[in-house]
Structures are given as C-alpha cells and as structure tokens.
Amino acid sequence: MNGRLQELTVFARVGESGSFTRAARDMNLSQPSVSRIVGGLEARLGVKLLLRTTRRLTLTAAGETFLERARAVLAGLDEAEDAARGIDSLRGTLRVALPVVFGMREVIPRLPGFLARYPLLRVDLRVSDAYQDLVAEGVDVAIRLGRLADSTFGARKLATLPRFVVAAPTYLKARGMPRHPADLAGHDCIVGSNGSGRESWVFKRRGTVISVDVAGRVQTDSAPGRQAGALAGLGIARVSAAMCAAELRSGALLPLLAGYALEPVQVHAVFPGGPRPSYKVQAFADYMAASLDTGPPGSAGGQ
User: Fold this and answer.
1) What pLDDT is recorded for position 10?
2) Which stretches does DSSP call E strand in the chain?
3) Same domain, 249 and 190
C-alpha cells in the first residue's frame, strides 16, 4: 500500500474507533505498527492529531479536520475503484449492523441471493439490539427499525412493517378475547420498560384514531422479550410480522383486533458515510428493498 494512503487508512480507523488496539485488529496489523504509522504521520505534518492518555484517545481540533478530509479521500478512492470495476464486480468487505430478530429472520436468510449476485463481496455481520456506534465500529450500513434520530448519516427506506397485537391461546382462554381496543384496558399487556408499567397504544379504523392506555405486570424493551412473553401466556403484546410469523402460522400466537391498525414500523438502511452511499452499500440497500418487498422469507415485510 502506498505510504501516504496507508497513513490515511490507519489514522482514519484509529480516529473512528478511538483505539490503537481496535484499529490494529480491524486492519490485521500489530498495535506497535499502528502507533508507529500514526506517529510518523503526525511528525510529517508537524501537528498533533491525537491526545493520548492511559484510558483513551481523543482527536485534537486538527485531528478532527484531518479525519473528515481523510474519510472523504478514502471514500472517493473506493467509489472510483467500484465505478471502474462496475457494480457487478464489487469486492471487499461490507460491514452490516443488524437488530437481532429482524436480522436473523429477514435479512440473513436473504444474504445467499445477495452474495450469489456479488461473488467477490464478503459480509461482516454485527448482530445486536444494543446501540452501536457505527463510526467507531467501522460499520458501512446498519438496518434500523422505527423512527430515525436526526443525524448527518444518510438513510434509505427499505420497507414498512405492519404491526398488530397478539396473544397465546392459553391467555385468551383464561382472560377472553378483546373485541375492541378499549377492551385492552382490562387485560394484561406487555409494555415497555419505562418504569410506570403503562403505555398508550394508538389504533386507526376508517380514519378514526383510538388511543388506549394499557398496563401489565410484564415490562420489556426487547422485541424477543415481548414475543417470548406473549408465547408464555403472560399477556397481549404489540409485534410486527417478522417477529412472530412462524408462531402465527403454527397457531402458537393469535392475531387480535382485526380491522384496527397500529402505526407501522419503518425499516431503513442507515450509512454513516453521508447522504451518498458507497457502491457496496447501494447494492445492499437495492437488493434488500427489492427482496423485502416480495415477502418471504419470514413474512411480507415484518420486525
């Protein structure tokens, strides 16, 4: 690798991750080599780019400016190479962050077709429901469910997921079937972990909005937790199709309140490189948007 290009690449990874050790691991280099390359870059420029303490690395003002320019140069180089090869000849590694349920049920089963289309491309999956710092982790694209926070990241909508309420047959046998959203006030509902044990669920029917305050003895912010709680007969849960498509088909969970629609969940591809995605990210987003629109595997666009 050209010396100055290597300096840019190594520094960008150190600056993004905040760690010589993590950058060395990601780039298959030794930690002393990474430290030496960054030190040599600082010496050549005559400015301090990083502040080193025993606990962490932070960017100086000059380092932040240089990192922004380095990213632009590296992204431009990747884009130039991809354009020269053509999008059908994409190669290298695409790092993808996925939420657990949607990732395992909807995205990963679609990857064989994606990788068959781009045989020179590799995929590094980061599957977690925990918040992931996309820049620090070196993620190229993340699948996000729900409303997006304002940021400088680029985003593309991939799908809209219908949601509904479900319960296990054992729960319904013991507590009865709700016929109207207002009936949920008399049921145990699995709600988020906001400390109050209560939530407002909003339904729409023929243009009319119906808001119901629900409560329950079980609280969780985890999508798998809501599904597991409903399966165990602990109460009524709000879910989307991908979360429990198999359970609905088998009858382990039953959909409730047909004709009353909950607000759907939006699925986006988020890319930290800015509003214009790389060719690799563009190819991934195009494929997933088209594939999710067709339905299986899993369901016709579920969480």
Assistant:
1) 87
2) 50-52, 57-59, 92-98, 121-127, 141-145, 154-161, 163-167, 198-205, 208-215, 237-240, 254-256, 261-262, 265-271
3) yes
285 and 147 both lie in a single domain:
yes
Give 142: exposed, middle or buried? Use CB within 10 Å, 0-12, 13-18, 19+: buried
**Of 101, 161, 100, residue with least CA distance to 302:** 161
pTM above 0.90, yes or no: no
- Residue written as tokens 């407002």? 200
| Max mean pLDDT range (2-11, 22-31, 179-188, 289-298) | 179-188
Give pLDDT, residue 303: 39
Which of the listed residues 69, 84, 99 is the one where a domain comes to its end?
84
Q: How many CB atoms lie within 10 A of CB 105?
A: 20
CA atoms within 13 A on the CB side of 234: 18
187, amino acid identity? H
Nearest-10 Cα torsion for 238, 241, 242, 246: 100
Are the C-beta atoms of 198 and 187 separated by less than 8 Å?
no
State yes or no: pLDDT of 299 exceeds 50. Answer: no
Let me know: does 112 contact 136? Beta carbons within 8 Å: no
Prior bond of 297 cis (ω within 30°): yes
Q: What is the domain range of residue 25? A: 3-84
